[in-house]
Design goal:
Layout: E1 2-5, E2 8-14, E3 24-29, E4 37-38, E5 43-48, E6 52-58, E7 65-70
Antiparallel strand pairs: 1-2, 2-6, 3-4, 3-7, 5-6
């Protein structure tokens, strides 16, 4: 996770053996005991087609935990 501004972070990740047409979502929660929910403010960017991607999302508000999901 890299802070790119006072209000945004980017989260880069690599994928292997992912099926064609897979959709990625960034999931978030505020506390370890909370349920995961989709971070609808996250923007997905392709860094290297089929291999490396990044989410850019807001850091405004309370601290959060993140995880990626492939559908």
């Amino acid at each position: 996770i890299q802070r790119i501004s006072a209000a945004q972070v980017q989260i880069e990740f690599d994928v292997t053996n992912i099926r064609a047409g897979a959709a990625f979502q960034l999931m978030t929660k505020g506390a370890l005991g909370d349920n995961w929910s989709v971070d609808n403010s996250a923007a997905l960017q392709t860094v290297v087609a089929g291999l490396r991607f990044r989410f850019v999302t807001s850091t405004v508000g309370t601290p959060r935990f993140f995880r990626g999901s492939a559908q």
